# Entry
Amino acid sequence: MESFEPTLIAFVCNWCTYTAADLAGTSRLSYPRNVRLIRVMCTGMIHPELVMEGFYSGADGVIILGCHPGSCHYFEGNTKTQSRAAVLSDLLDDAGINPDRFELQWISSAEASVFARIITQFTNRTKQLGPLNYKNMTRQTPKT
# Structure
């Protein structure tokens, strides 16, 4: 039997998390390769519809990784993201997607090892959930 390797999307902040991911690579830290990084200037730019589109496009899991609260380059982008994450939980449930397939975490630019650990944990959790069954999903459009 073939081993399941999930397809993961990670929306990462340009100022903190992308830098941590880069540092993890240059430090030769090990983490799963099945995550696709999408670099955004600020996690505050990530609308719930974008996360849902990731799932509808074939991702088995979506994670948002941004600056720690109080450290946002754009002042309050990450608090906006935190509010939207609460909305996402309901949208995922309505769409028939296990909310454990979505995660929001804070990572500073100096936390390369934290980046590698979080990506590894998220990958392992998504592996345990198995492939996302797209046939049973109901397309949801956020109203926020």
The beta strands are 8-13, 35-40, 61-66, 102-106. The first helix runs from residue 17 to 26. Residues 83 and 137 are 24 Å apart (CA to CA).
